[in-house]
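Annex B. Sample input.
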Amino acid sequence: MSKKYVFNHLDEIEDNRLAAEIKEALETDLYFSPEAHSFQARKGIFGEMIVARWLEYRNIEYLTEEELRKQSAEKTPDFLLPDPVEIRGQQVNWIESKAVFGNETDHQNYIKKQFSHYEELYGSGMVIYWYGYVDGISLEGHIISDYRIDDEFDPDILRDIVELLNLAPDW
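Annex B, continued. Sample output.
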């Protein structure tokens, strides 16, 4: 029996104490519960929406991950820039938005599973860790940024950034 099945059918658990403990864990777990995963996905989508609006504000053309998948792209950053742009003195061909804090372990996993493939296929890029990142993480030849992706923002985009950074679980 899968955990997803159990989570959705607590009434079928014969041990009432176990069912109650699982229910309590699901209601209070801010990191691994289905609600937590859903909340993190919403933050990720919100971060990507902010990047899209920022690119549009700067009149930068882009292809989304969804558009790249329709073209049967093997590896798909959140945003591919058909015409590279210069940001902070570096050429940027792709942007990946991460609505998380960038720690060393996760960053290394992202390099292995995503960023190195993007570099091979598309060249240099930019990774945005919306909630900041530890000193010392790097991706040579690429930009790593927190929420301060630009010096100039449309006020609506800035409000959205503040909202993203202050989102709290709603369950």
